[in-house]
Every structure is written in structure tokens, then in C-alpha cells.
Specification:
This protein is mostly beta strands and about 210 residues long. The protein is about 0% helix and about 35% strand.
Amino acid sequence: VAGYNMAVLAFGPVDETYGTNGFHLDFADSSHFGLDVSSNTADLAYTPVTVNFDGSNDYLERGSDLDSNADGKLGIFSAWVRITGADGSSFKIYSGGAGHAKVDRLASNKIQIILETSGGAVALTMPSVSDWEAADGWVHILAAWDLGNTLAYLYINDVDETGSTTNNDVEIDYTESDHTIGANDGNAQLWPGDMADVYYNMEETID
């Protein structure tokens, strides 16, 4: 994530296709420039690579803030995750250095977004309605928020999972001293399982 104020990690969990009307042109080959769907260049399968976290000592750590990062009220988080054990325990999917921005799987087995101000006051707390456990396999998380307009959504597996939400019109402390995937800022609460296509945007939202 070095050099970006939008953290984007490119992993992936499952094969996907471009659908009935989708097509693919490989622009690594300049002979394909200017062509259209009639010149589909073949394998349409999306075959990404997953990253496994063993729950013992695996995590990804930035070690500093993101370049040109700034506090704000907007955000998007998306990821594929799979828990491979330890239901009923709390783990981090993402954590900022001061712990003011977190994506958790709680001990209650719910997935939750927690965002705070630089002083630790609540900006957004948004848990899932349902529990998510190892037996669920791969699940997709999509969350978006705009605190200035009291908007916050949490979708899991394309279903609205927005639980009882606290949403305050304040600045989120995005400017952290560190950013970690798969653990908290103290490198504990280690994720036991897999992740893919992790995307965290601290500048924009969707509705």
C-alpha cells in the first residue's frame, strides 16, 4: 500500500466470470487496441490468489501512515474472507495504528466496522445482523459510509446486514501511525483463515 492514500490489496478467493454480456481483451497485446466484443480474447475466468493467515504469527503491516492520507467522513471497505476455526473469538480483519479504525469479527461471531475520532469518540459502529462462522466458508463484506449525510451500509454476500448502527457527523481518524491486515495494532487478535481482494478507500463512498 506504499504511496497510496487508498489502501488496495489485490487477493482473490474464487473463480468469477464476466457474465452473459461481459468480455475480455488483453491490452498487453497492442494488436487488440480498438477491438470490441466480437474479438474476445479468450479465458474469461478471474482466478485470483488468496492469502492465508495461520492465526499464530501471520499479518500484513504497513509500519507507517499512508502517503497523503487525511481524516474524513467517507469510506468504502470490501473484502472476501474465510474463517477456518476458533468460532466465538475476536479477530481483526483490519486495524489502524491507534485502533480508531477497525474491521472485526467479534467474539459474538458478528462482523463489525468501528470508526472513531482522534480522541477516541465513536464516529461509526456498524455490526452485522447475522453471525459468521467457519462453517460459512468464503463470505464477501462490502461496507460504505458517509457520516456527513448519516449514511452507513453493511452488505455480506450481497444481503443487507446493517445492524443497530451508531452514526455521528464527525471526522474519522484515518491518519494512523500504522495500518495492519489480519491483526490489531499490537499484532494480536490474529486472523485465522484466508483473505482476498481487500479494498479500503478512505476518500470516497458509494450508495
